[in-house]
Give the backbone structure.
Amino acid sequence: AGASPAQPGEFTRRAYTNGRLDLAQAEAVAALIGARGARSRRAALERLEGGVCRAVNAVRAPLLELLAHLSARLDHPDSDLDPLSCGEADASLAALRLPLERLLAAYDRGRHEREGLRVCLVGRPNAGKSSLLNALLGRDRAIVSETAGTTRDTLEEPAVLEGLAATLIDTAGLREDARDEAESEGVARAERALLACDAVVFVVDSSRPGDEADARTRERVLGLAARERRPVVVAFNKCDLLAHEARLFGGLEVSAKTGAGLAELSRAVALAAVASGGDEGESLLLGARDRSAADAALAEIDAARAALAEHPGSWEDRAAFHVREAHARLGLILGEGATDEVLRAVFERFCIGK
């Protein structure tokens, strides 16, 4: 009697409501539960341990100090408070842009932790892309056949590469003379997947010598990848049957059949994708809500600085308004002033209870 079913995220929400967690930490609980790789878990743990709160308050504290000074000057213009020049206020605001820009840059770099890498396997028909996908997954997911052109559509499967969550994408074999409309569409989808991924694995059948069609395919793949600035890792598949004269350019020797070189391939792909994305650290701001609030705070700081430049004779009131807004926007990241709609959106992503 009197009991009611637990709602999604109910226990974490109670911790937030009772002041045990801020909203950024509450979101970290869900991020930790859903983390697919070691780096995702580390980023979520840093957030859960108060990393976001420390980073945000490092900006909010000087904003509040500046706001207090401006408010005191406005409320008591004849007092003996130390004067704050327009230039000093501008310097204080300018100094706060850098930590905010770092937070936003961390969000962009941390996309791999939040969304995972998208890794596209491309190559000529029968190069062994589907076999390589299965080998990297550790299970048979893609249909494998000796008949060239078996794969007609893209196939996406979750995986973990070097601690990073990833989605591996198997694609139709690339050839110039598609046998029918379905195969032609498969080739087009393969190229679209290449353009939308974070890293390309160009699979080469090293059991046979290369020919002119192989060279043209290579140039096509490298050209598309270069246009979109996608890193390419070349995998010489079937290295257990390697014909050394088949080598057209540098790459990694792998065998989907024996497992040789798979660990090296996973490492190379993860490193290439991370390097190309500038991902040198983990993200503290894990969600779009955080990004939006930090962006808005930065815009308010810029608006305050603009008020200083445009209204040198009456800047205090205008600047105080924007400083107050910047402080409030950053507070939203921690859940200060969060509406019921925002809280529902955060906690409905949780499992029942939690």
Notes: Residues 137 and 159 are 6 Å apart (CA to CA).
